[in-house]
Amino acid sequence: METQTQAPQPDVKGGLTAYLQVDGAMKAADFYQRAFGAELAGAHPPDDKGRTMHVHLYVNGSSLMLADAYPEHGHPLEKPQGFTMTLHVNDIDAWWKRAIEAGATSVLPISEMFWGARYAQVRDPFGVLWALNQPL
Fold this sequence. Notes:
It contains two helices and eight strands. The protein is of the alpha/beta class.
């Protein structure tokens, strides 16, 4: 009997991991590398329809996981809503500039907020809302 070996899985970083479903997981991974300095930790190969069932990124010291929609398995594509991905950063101006130059859209420009931080929001090309937060 032949046994199948599995490649070692990358370490999961952080105590809570977001798992985003997007239209084009590998395209999103490429965007997050350019916009947020993400590092590709691992990815399953695309299927015969070009979909990727699992992508693992490291972003700002944490893991972020992505997948394409698989409606035939009960996971249809849905518009991202009801959440914000928040990055706690030390240089909000550099993070903001890099995200905008990569193709993110400004939702809220960098502003000083009542809670004692500089804060901004961008939306990525996949519809996900991202916040940048830097303590004053």
